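#structure-requests
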Amino acid sequence: MEQKSAIIIGAGNRGQTYASYSLTYPNELKIVGIADPNPEKRDKFIHLYNLNDSQCYDSWESIFDQPKLADVAIITTQDQMHVEPALAAIKKGYHILLEKPLATTENECVTINEKAKGYDKIIGLCHVLRYTSHYLKIKELIDSGMIGDVVNIEHLEPVNYWHMAHSYVRGNWRRLDESSPMIIAKSIHDIDLVSWFANSPYKSIYSIGSLRHFTTENAPEGSTDRCISDCAVENECPYSALKLYMNMDLTGWPVSVISSDLSKEGREKALQEGPYGRCVYRSDNDVVDHQVVSIEFENYIKASFTMSAFTDGERRTRIMGTMGEIIGDFNTITLSNFRNQSKEIVWEKSEEDEMGHGGGDFGLMKQFLLAVRANDSTLFSSSLEAAVESHLMSFGAEKSRLEKRVILSNQKL
């Protein structure tokens, strides 16, 4: 199998995840460069991927100032830093794997799409859920015709209370002006799934949602600005930073995000000084904590999507067809056949499905590299074209939420 080379733009959690594919499958991928402003993160890549100083850059601009260094550019910068690196990678002639979201505005999505027209390399988005065995099975069942024509799709994204607190109240995606709307920053994975299952452009969309709970008005009496500052209600608060980050047995995500020093002293310092120690009711967050979206597709399928912070469990999907029904919850998939009145479990979670995003992280990497080796974009389902459709649908939903009206697809820009 032909080994491909890659540079990583952004050495955060997602960049580290995709790069680690090369450690498990070194015959398929080799990391030959890293760009990140954080010297500690660059040093980590030097150690893990046997890089030297000349292969490390402190910005995306500096790495793209060089002659083309690899076959692939994997861009995993923060949400608002996707467009310019992507355009630079196109200019240099890289195959491109871009972390979601494609961009944080509709116009930027259109700009990337326009610049990529006629491009002779693969451009793909990291919609990793498409590459889990769970959702691949659901898609297979839909496409097989076993449930007849799809009429309705219901999909629940349970963000989980602790994940909401970590990423969207305290973390990098807590503010619209620093990231993007929740439906783009978090739920684009799920909107993409719904679009993939429907296999049709959307016709109209309507959405409601708000920031209901994580506000100063809901701060309990006796709470403090930081969980570590003798908060009177810390012990009973489910969102306590001490509960989430001070268990010394935990060293992976999300604990690994708060500091590079995961000693007791390092963690305490991070909670005393950094954003992850703040009370969830006294942060500067403004993204929604719950949202509901109703979608009508051009092929007459109707879909409903719910995102909620106030959950503790796995995603749930129900596909309702004229001849059957599919119900999945990331543990099992049940198929009901109306023709013979049968009901059976057709998929169960395996050990491999416990990996990142249900096995989707590495599943995506394997399929992307297969497409790169063949230079055949049809081998990678989360293409730029598919991503533009799901992103414009999501921006339409956000426009609907803000303006409190139905948005037609021809009104999305």
